Amino acid sequence: MGMVAERMTSLNCDPEVLNPLGKGPFVLVCEHASNHVPEGWDDLGLSADQLVSHHAWDSGAADLTRALSKALDAPAVLSRVSRLFLDYNRPAYHPSQFPREIDGAPVPGNARLTEAEIECRERLAFFPMRDAVDHVIAARQALTRGPAVIAVHSCEPEMDGVARPWPVGIISQWDQRFAKRIVRFLEGVGVHPVGDNDPYDGRTAAGFTLTHHAGSRRLHNAAIEMRKDVLTGADGVAHWASLLADCLSAVHQEMAP
Question: pTM of the prediction?
Answer without folding.
Answer: 0.94
